[in-house]
């Protein structure tokens, strides 16, 4: 005779309760992330770390089904679907990789000012991107970079220095035809430029972006010094920035230009800015062809994919991450092809 529920081993009951509790909490957290905006600090943090707390659901689906823990299986269903939407494409890309030659190699790298100089040298040496979108370049680094990389990247554009004392840059092997400052950004946003390149006779608009930094766990004094203010306000700034960059990308595409928006979004897969940018026609190169989560923030493997290459008018062929070399970010390299 099979054992009654009350006769089950204590460890099985405890494990069942633990899985059920995880499923309920993860489902509620997912509802908060998808149903709220990043302006709420809790929603922002949950979205930033979502891959970590969603991933267990993928493993628990077969376990709960095999054990016939139907309530637990139901509880982990929504988190498992959300995790699958992120992780499954990576496996599919491995099975069916894109078989096309690249026409352009683009890289983005938040160099963390002087800490990332070694990583930048490694990136240029090993990946040799055609176009580089850089963030957090200190003004006193520019002369040295000009001397060291001027021959490899004869065309360079430096953004205005932000209130944090650094700036963005676009370096290119291809000629620059115009540099236009981005207008309409919210207060607290870093300056950015639309840099237009002539890539073998075709115009390509490149924007190196570094969206507003959060001030997580900051003291009141640190929040007062932060250009974007509190975590919640910084989240609102990032959403407004993303909306403006999406508008500019749409305008440039309507004018017949290909577009690259690359940089540090300070937000991840389940945060609002990336969803905003994707919803306006920008294609996330890593999501399109990547074969691993590509967590770029923090020491390997990192805790979130906040550095992205978004494109319109290109077909992504491949993406990979480089060595940070002292930076708090890993560089992202994207191989792109002109549409057939």
Task: Give the secondary structure arrangement, pairings included.
Elements: H1 10-35, H2 41-48, H3 50-67, H4 70-95, E1 104-110, H5 117-126, E2 131-137, H6 142-149, E3 155-158, E4 167-172, E5 176-181, E6 193-199, E7 202-210, H7 220-225, H8 231-254, E8 258-264, H9 272-279, E9 283-284, H10 285-289, E10 307-312, E11 315-321, E12 332-337
Parallel strand pairs: 1-2, 7-8
Antiparallel strand pairs: 1-12, 2-4, 3-4, 5-6, 6-7, 8-10, 9-10, 11-12
Helix pairs in contact: 1-2, 1-3, 1-4, 3-4, 8-9
How would you characterize this protein structure?
With 340 residues, this protein is α+β, with helices and mostly antiparallel strands. It folds into two domains: 5-95, no CATH class; 104-337, Deoxyribonuclease I, Chain A. The protein is built from ten helices and twelve strands. Strand 6 (193-199) and strand 7 (202-210) form a beta hairpin. Helix 8 (231-254) packs parallel to helix 9 (272-279). The protein is globular and about 70 Å long. It holds the Pfam family Exo_endo_phos. GO terms for molecular function: endonuclease activity.
